[in-house]
Amino acid sequence: MTCLPIPTSGPQKKLGLVIDLDICVGCHACAVNCKEWNTGGHSAPLTDMDPYGQDPNGVWFNRIHSFEVVDEDNDSRTVHFPKSCLHCDDAPCVTVCPTGASYKREEDGIVLVDADKCIGCKLCSWACAYGAREYDEDAGIMKKCTLCVDRIYNENLPEASRVPACVSTCPVGARSFGDLNDPTSDVSQLVADREGFDLMAELDYKPTNKYLPPRPKQNEHTVSASNKPVALTPVSTEKAGLLAQWADKVLSL
Amino acid sequence: MGFFPTSKQEDVDTSPHVSDEVKTTTCYMCACRCGIKVHLRGDQIRYIEGNPDHPVNKGVLCAKGSAGIMQHNSPARLQKPLLRTGERGSGEFKEIEWDEALELAGGWLGKIRAKDPSKLAFFTGRDQSQSLTGWWAAKFGTRNFAAHGGFCSVNMAAAGLYSAGGSFWEFGEPDWDLTKYLLMFGVAEDHDSNPIKIGLGKLKGREGTKFVSVNPVRTGYSGIADEWIGIRPGTDGLFVFSLIHELLKAEKIDWDYLSRYTNAPWLVIQDPGAADDGLFVRDAEDNPLCYDADKKTLISANNPDAKPSLAGEYTLPDGRKAVPAFHLMAERYLDTQYSPDAVAEQIGYSADNIRRIAAEIAHVAFEEQIELDVPWTDWAGRKQEKMIGRPISMHAMRGISAHSNGFHTCRAIHVLQMLLGSIDVPGGFRHKPPFPRPCPPGPKPAGHDSIANTPLPGMPLGFPTGPEDLLVEPDGTPKRIDKAYSWEYPLSSHGMMHMVIHNAWKGDPYPIDVLFMYMANMSWNSSMNVQGTIKYLTDKNEDGSYKIPKIIYSDAYNSEMVAYADLILPDTTYLERWDAISLLDRPICSAHGPADSIRQPVIKPDRDVRPFQDVLLDLGARLGLPGMANEDGSPTYPGGYSDYITNHERTPGVGPLAGWRGKEGDQTGKGDPNPDQLQRYIDNGCFWSDEFTPEQSYYKFANRSYLDRSKEMGWIPKAERIVMHIYSEHMQKFRLAAQGHGENQPPDVLRSRIEETFDPLPIWYMPLEEKAYDGNEYPLHAITQRPMHMYHSWGSQNAWLRQITAQNRLFINEITAQKQAISDDDWVWVISPHGKVKTQVKLMSGVNPHTIWTWNAIGKRKGAWGLDDKAPESNKGFLLNHIISELLPPRKDGYRYSNSDPVTGQAAWYDLRVRIEKCDELEEGLTEPMQDAVASLPNAPEQIAVLRYGADFSEKRGSTTTSEEEIKTPTLKTTTEDLLGEKS
């Protein structure tokens, strides 16, 4: 068993991601860019088994799921859902760890795996309800999203690049990074404005990462609630009449 | 909690060394040409990221670009020039030296050139150096050149360039910052990649905007659309006409815009049977005339003081009648055959919804008008206080393009935009430089004559404006091997690559001696009728010689096409080469201003390969081609492609790159070659860009300041206004020929086809294949898309991307499947009039019920792309191309037209009609047809079991290596598959 950091009285940072499900198009940019950064990063390598064979299967810290759901109006929609470690406050993957390998950093709340202590028992992957842990069967140890801990503070990179790879590469801008413990931060504001939610909140893991729900869509189901017209009013229904009327119009070049 | 001691936190290095060096260049993982920063560690790539300063991607990078490391390190990379030793198709080759390879190629090509240069068919695929390859073909003297545009998007390009003076994607974009309503038609995933995604993110982030996606399939972008219109494939034209019908009836059109900027007021002669029926009335100076409603007289439509009328019938001085082009258009689309009620069932969208969309569009265009406080001066020197914007924008691509009615449908979309006044206005669809250009932009296609050892007088691809520009013999026989610019496909401005192999095999219109191809996987996913194409490539004459005598092919990878060539010229990866993304070709400009860019080699090749463009220039010098060889026979560009990029001038002062021209590098657009130019590009992140002033930013077609600048840059020949063509007189000229007028006459058998399809106003007709076959026997449409993470990329050998998609399923609407008792994971036959293919099923609700679809180009041939013979790509993945015919059913006399748009020759691979049948249980598990594996190439790398890329970079645990090793313990796999067949 491993303890979570004991909350201190002073302000603590809770670094995490805010993911906008309204605009994620499921392009996998974040997943692949994460892979290429991290395969040479803190948890290197993100091993790929059978890379050119029958069952190519590697370590990914971030995966995208695309599926269809049916809402209350019986309206089916396609959802693109990126998923990585949510860096929970009450992280069962940490408390379940028998060696102390799995831990939550005091200074910023990032959940990491100490590779030197990990014995590859996989208890943490059983404990994580989000399926966010990635076992490297070649190395025999568990790996996971590091929130790019080797990037966000990295003085060898320009300041603008000191965000997780998934955030800097996302083409639609669906991913934001920041301190979710600071109510004035951009990410906290975003969560407040857009009613960001916890994934599977009922489990009470207190995930740091938040998801922003899709904005209400303007379509045939919602249009009646708006003031916009639902059909145009014909000036005339008769073709010849219209053309004759238009022939009298004087325009300019 | 404190019961268990907290273990000491590890000491994390939060500032590790990232790279020894960062080099900028341009991505080539698809066609979008984003700027990238490549982090290098020694001779290895540590990381590739988007360049934040770059005008295309502004720092973001898609999945493909992010997987560049794996593309660069692919085991499928070709290693050395290869000469075929076995039969064609066997994959048996021997390695040869470059000198031998180039001597062989030079020898074959030299013989042809000395006899009849058109015996060379030179076709390139997703070539980003077409201004070089086209020029090379012209200097060689062959008219038989094109790239993959005829397969891809010529309907979009031609329809736009003959109508709006610009086109979708490469030459235009929605005004992402100001648009309030985006109508996107048939955009296959990720076309174009990052700019659209950046734009959608912006659009959806603004209050009160709406995004409508018209697409039979709800994936990707359509998933985030406010409204998804799951239209029946090939019926978009009818939908657009019904919107136009509604707008006209309610008079929700921009009269001023139509009158000022389009040919709506131009008078059209109404004299059926006359040689000039349907042409514009012109004065002695060739000015089109309009009717001045104030002065009650005919007046030049180029006279800024004209007060034109847009409707009514007028009498010409010779007593004949004429009506404004707008009148003809309105008369057509006001007809009740285009009313929402008339088209609803056919397009699969209710009449009420069509009416609502029309109302929404009108509301945004006219009630939510934008006014920018930007004064500007129009073409006639008149000051305008504001820029009026109609914040409705449109974008369209593959789903419009790949149908045999796509040219007219795309023209219909442009006409709809013109009616709304939304082209190149704030909030609308914006041109990217060098567009707008006159409709069409010119020049005309060269290649009427094929003369020994003589260059063509111009470039092989161009824009015909009438029958006299066609490349045909006096009896109408096509002069080009692909039959482009013939009476069969008059406006085929991108050529017809999809017909080259068939026609060369058949010797129709004539046999060729050498087929020379680059980056074109023609024996697989870039051809319709894969089995047939393989037969054409391998078929022999009675004397044992191949029907296509010699095939030279250049590619960086062991694609399926490699096995069918006699000589392989191995290309480099995109990170090992120089390139110019040139304004002479398909530039990277945005609506904000012009831009171009380069690739620089960031890594040295570790194989005996050469950039294709270097090789082409080398061959050009060996052949003594003008412009590539000096008088003494020495090469003009001994430094290869980078030498050419720097020093070549197409016309005086205009070269491949527009930035830092002139000896001092202080000139833009035009100027002497600058020996330091490439370094200046590198210093700037490998691109050059410029911004228009606010007053030049919109209304470019009629904007004095913009037009002057466009002329200065060499984009347009004269700084004259560009009038958009609602009514196409160029089309009418072909129609008149079909009616028997003029010197250039089509063969009789083609007259009705031309008369019908060369309507000067957009029309809709049922896709040709759909019309030809029994709808009961083949009740379903079958279409494809590329997944976003592989769009326009060579993805299947990519170790990372193939983990996302390695098998493509057939997606069927749940209700449709239920009717045939088909469930998820079942195996089915997809049967078309041309053949059948076996695949595994995935059900979904977000697809038009009359349509099935799959991911394209996932299916691979065994032995190709460096994949194991057990790879899902070759065992379970499939190509729909197997069951698409490149030919339409025979005409009465047995002749078969290409399965293409009869206007442009665009391959109509979305016209496919099929039925599905459940497989027998015994047939399940493997796809069919399945080609035998091709032999592996000499010195191809061994399969690796574990890839530990990046292990070397970690300084903390630098002990592991990237070498090959066996997997010791088989472990439980927990892979699941989600909706889109992607592993998770």
Description:
The complex is a heterodimer of chains A (253) and B (984). Chain A is α+β, with helices and mostly antiparallel strands. Chain A has helices at residues 29-38, 92-95, 123-127, 165-169, 186-194, 239-247, and strands at 15-20, 48-49, 57-58, 62-70, 76-84, 102-104, 111-113, 134-136, 141-143, 175-179, 210-212. A three-stranded mixed beta sheet of chain A has the order 10-1-11. A two-stranded antiparallel ribbon of chain A has the order 2-3. Chain A is elongated. Chain A starts with 14 loop residues before the first strand and ends in a 6-residue tail after the last helix. The relative contact order of chain A is 0.20. Chain B is an alpha/beta fold and 984 residues long. Chain B contains 27 helices and 35 strands. In chain B, the strands form ten sheets. In chain B, strands 5-4-25-24-23-6-7 form a seven-stranded mixed beta sheet, with helices on both faces. In chain B, α9 (236-249) runs antiparallel to α12 (340-347). The longest helix of chain B is centred in the first third of the chain and has 18 residues, at 98-115. The model of chain B is unreliable at 957-977 (pLDDT under 50). At the A-B interface, α1, β2, β3, β4 and β5 of A face β3, α1, α7, α8 and α9 of B.
Pick out its properties.
heterodimer; A: 253 residues; alpha+beta; three-stranded mixed beta sheet; two-stranded antiparallel ribbon; 11 strands; elongated; B: 984 residues; alpha/beta; seven-stranded mixed beta sheet; six-stranded mixed β-barrel; 27 helices; 35 strands; globular
Amino- and carboxy-terminal Cα gap of chain A: 81 Å
Quick one: overall form of chain B?
A: globular
Pair of chains with the largest interface and how many residues each contributes:
A-B, 113 and 143 residues
* Helix proportion of chain A: 10-25%
Number of helical regions of chain A:
6
| Overall pLDDT level of chain B | 94
**CA radius of gyration of chain B:** 28 Å
Largest sheet of chain B: 7 strands, mixed
Compute the average pLDDT of chain A. Answer: 94
